[in-house]
Description:
Blueprint: H1 11-23, H2 33-48, H3 62-70
Amino acid sequence: MSRAGNCYDNAVIESFFGTFKQEWAHQHQWSGRADARPATHDDIEVFYNRQRLYSALGYKTPAEADSDVAC
């Protein structure tokens, strides 16, 4: 952790939540938190971490970028 009040402390998670809300969360309606929780978990684990293309990785998925490093 950096010094108190450093604006960069939350930049990564703020970026994640901004992207997540824009790409997925605002496009769905749930009847309650119990319905939203598993759907959100599945989207993060299946799509966001395994299938989504990332510009920082040369527009590859994390799995593709990992396989490039291993070779």
